[in-house]
Amino acid sequence: MVKYARCNALLSLALDASGEGCRYMSKADTEDGVVEDMSKHLVSMHQVDANELVANIRATTKTTRK
Ligand SMILES: [Zn+2]
Description:
Layout: E1 2-6, H1 7-10, E2 25-28, H2 31-46, H3 54-60, E3 62-64
Antiparallel strand pairs: 1-2, 1-3
The chain binds zinc ion.
Zinc ion binds next to helix 2.
């Protein structure tokens, strides 16, 4: 089982480094891991305050089988 969240579920207009819609997907074994990884991505790639998005990250985190 893997937890994952998509950047574009959080920031629908986010663009990646090449100006395309951001398709970054954060995966981890735990929801906390997803929050941590996605927070780093949001700060470094999109310069947003990840603390304000933690609840949204958790709300959009899904679970899948490997
Ligand atoms: Zn992104």
